[in-house]
Amino acid sequence: MQTEQLIQQIRTKKSFLCIGLDVDIKKIPNHLLKETDPIFEFNKAIIDATHHLAVAYKPNIAFYEAFGIKGWEALKKTINYINENYPELFTIADAKRGDIGNTSTMYAKAFFEDMEFDSVTIAPYMGKDSVEPFLAFKDKHTILLALTSNEGAFDFQTLKVGEVPLYQKVLETSKSYKNSENLMYVVGATKAEYLKEIRQIVPESFLLVPGVGAQGGSLEDVCKYGMTENIGLLINSSRGIIYASNGEDFADKAKEKALEMQQQMASFL
Ligand SMILES: O=C(O)c1cc(=O)[nH]c(=O)n1[C@@H]1O[C@H](COP(=O)(O)O)[C@@H](O)[C@H]1O
Predict the structure, then answer these.
(1) Ligand 1 mean position to 64 CA, how many Å?
(2) Which of 24, 140, 191, 230 is most buried, most CB within 10 Å of its CB?
(3) pLDDT tens for residues 84-126?
(4) What domains can you pick out in the chain, each with its CATH number?
């Protein structure tokens, strides 16, 4: 998907909500467990109930890998369901990959060609030749971890490398990568106070911002410091939406939570 299509969708829906499909079999409603593929049935119900309020969906691959072949099948069925029924939606494989060049090419093929995701999250630690194989795919997006939402972000990401913190070096250096126009960045909502500086380095890039809701980040602060003329934000919520209820009404309750967030977002547009 081209970035312009994502921006158009955001303007039409007045939403820049990304719903995280971090599906834990222990947390999904009991009545779904009798289905052949409970994870897929859960995702399908959530997507059908919320697709008009969100612009992106982000399955976190760990939650599918943990179930082996069954998990991968549920993931494949979920991405196919979105692509066939709601092709306007932007899809993110939250896989946090990155390796030597030929291995990264295989990861890119897995998520862009076989799974047909629009984007994938990538760790920048191994540098240029680990990231560029993902950037080589036309109309696909590579979402580089810049400043993450967790406490451990302070272990390395904020340490100074020369004059600047490492996360700023990641942002600056990645701009020189081949096909860098296909880059987006992860910045945790819990680090909203860093967004002013981040926007000085990447004024236009889209930022995937997880960490509102369960992790305590503020949607208002993220919008205040991170929004650009073309919005430039995808704000993710996973647990706060998909586990709003674990009863038969789970999809309706997820819709209510998504609507609350969409309405809040609309007030910033
Ligand atoms: O790359 C991510 O999506 C990510 C980066 C980050 O810095 N923090 C973070 O929480 N995430 C992911 O975003 C989701 C957050 O989930 P909730 O806290 O339940 O909304 C999880 O899938 C995390 O793996």
Answers:
(1) 15
(2) 191
(3) 999 999 999 999 999 999 999 999 999 999 999 999 999 999 9
(4) 3-266 (3.20.20.70)
Q: Is the CB of 41 under 6 A from ligand 1?
A: no
Distance between CA 124 and CA 122 in Å, rounded?
Answer: 6
Give residue 157's pLDDT: 98
Show the CA angle centred on residue 178, arms to residues 150 and 107, nearest 5°: 55
pLDDT at 214: 81
Closest CA to 17 of 172, 242, 174: 242
Give me the amino acid identity at 67. F
N-to-C CA span, the chain = 22
Residue 128 falls in the annotated catalytic set: no
Could you tell which of 57, 94, 111, 141 is best to mutate to test the pocket of ligand 1, judged by most ligand atoms within 8 Å of the CB? 94
pLDDT in tens, 141-167: 999 999 999 999 999 999 999 999 999
Distance from the CA of 58 to the center of ligand 1, in angstroms? 9
